[in-house]
Here is the input.
Amino acid sequence: MERVLVGLKRVVDYNVRVRIRSDGSGVETDGVKMSINPFDEIALEEALRMKERGEANEVVVVSIGGSECQQQLRTGLAMGADRAILVETAESVNPLTGARIFLELIKREAAELVLLGKQAIDDDNNQTGQMLAALWGRPQATFASRIELNGSTAKVTREVDVGLETIEVDLPAVITTDLRLNEPRYVKLPDIMKAKKKPLDQIPVADLAVESAASITAVTFEPPEQRQKGIIVKDVAELVAALKDKGLV
Amino acid sequence: MLVDELKSIVGTSGWTSDPDELLPHLTEWRDVFHGETLLMVSPGSTEQVSAVIRACAAGNTAVVPQGGNTGLCGGAIPDQTGQQVLLSLSRMNAIRCVSPNDFSMIVEAGCILADVQAAARQAARFFPLSLAAEGTCQIGGNLSTNAGGINVLRYGNARDQVLGLEVVLADGTIWNGLRGLRKDTAGYDIKHLFIGSEGTLGVITAANLRLYPEVRESQTAMIAVNSPQHAVDLLVELRGSLADQLQAFELIPSRAIRYLRRHMSALRMPFTDDYPWYVLLESSLGDDAQTLESALAAALEKRLGVDAVVAKNVSEQEGLWRIRHSISEVQKFEGVSLKHDVSVPLGKIGAFIEAAEAAVLKLMPDARIVAFGHIGDGNVHFNISQPKSWEGDRFREKAASLSNVVYEIVSSLQGSISAEHGIGQLKRELLKQYRGEEEIAVMKSIKAALDPGNILNPGKVL
Here is the structure.
């Protein structure tokens, strides 16, 4: 196939302890380590392996957001993507708007496969891939833990609640990736340097003439209640006494 | 009777003589040193430590202080007479106060190092002391051995993190020197006597520690290099180009990577090709990842390194560090390992590793050398794994002769026979051998002045 589109969302690094801003207006991102959404990184790794096997000619990474997202796109280019597109917007983008933007890019790029992480670890929506498939009118294969391309179809093993399910979808299609699909590669310094010279197009979101979906307004953010420190009891009698004391039995 | 007196001082929850409970406290984790004890006491306060010491002094009974028991030289293990009292500081594990605006915190000796780091982080501050045993070792032990670890390059040793100490002296007197002054030239700076004295001059019960602004973001990279000398040249180059933002700079030999591939195959290796040496570095440049990247690119262009990876997220950073932190452990799977924790002047690291390797291989051609460590500090863990086909005991018999050639080379390069692990009972003879008479004489007179009855950790260091 000619072209694979891969979405890369900039999120607070998976290992960072998320903190709420003191005014409750959102999650603190100032001076916090930001990385590629881990599921998206897996999607990119899979696309790169397809290219290395000769199943795809070009891998294009896409991010939607402010100019700071260039950092994640450059990382994607260093991993091996051929070029990058940044759809620039200062607004927060909900899944439906994101799906509409991707649909515009699919048309522009004549993409035959879109690989997205199954969800972003910041909002955990798990919606964009599904919405995009519906808008595009093409099949979707979500939660992929194995992908096998056979010409005009893809055989995808999905991680579902009851175990593993294998389906076959016609291409073009949207595939969203799960954790066990692969382990993304380390990036080599020479590739990081080369990536600085790869093309990165910046497109203002207005140029895509995408209708912004009515957004949900977050009223307030607060951290979950802190877990109380446990106590060690000597015996059952003490346990029962402690539970009674707390009015739990 | 002393035992009863001690029991009444610390109360029912503060002592044990149960062999099962004692076992982990009487054996060092590498299984080299075993001891016996009259009684293990775990006081819950400085006053109790003081009362314990006073009682032991009156009974002319030796006291062996112990923290997390992660030492490598037997410094915290009592002798085999069963007449020494083991003083565990584990119960004194309170963080007394964190003062973010003073950039300091007061902690008790039994605090686990990782908990100290976490308490600092909670207050948006950074406590830089960090080493492989940090989940178990205690700050009291770190201070009494002047521990080093991975951040010495930028922040210094345990000693450099101390603003003040609270110490129980050999007669039970409590010296409260917790004042958190950065400048204080009033008389002898006696806290430094206790730091690194391995419990032979007093028992550290609390410390006022220096904190730093939080390192919000750091970068981790692994670089393949051709030789230890290239690693040193790379360090010199990067210290310049990164304006001293290097936090850590560690040398890893290819043999360690081979061991890890063999025994810890779940660890992911960043390079598929094999290279003779690797450097793991951490830099605190924060957002400006480009600076590290271009500094590394320039260094590679100068042929100081062959290839490099830069971690692209925290998981990968942790993965790279896991490789470094697993080296100590993985050597166990390859039989007996003879360890030398030595330091030489930075510029002589290449010469040291080359000379020591040649000398060891001349004596024992099948010896397998694993030289790694904090080379940013001139510290090399020059370890030798036994020849593959040998029995462990046959190797142990030759250990002394191997060590001698290593220490002779260290000495000829003006190095130290103990960089960060201390002396304990393991290296007493070496200390005598490699430190001048006048220096040993000063140490002895300090010991005699502070502990005239020789009850504090006797048989250690001197």
About this structure: The interface with chain A takes residues 216-217, 221, 223, 268, 270, 286-287, 289, 293, 296-297, 300, 307-316, 318 of chain B (CB under 8 Å).
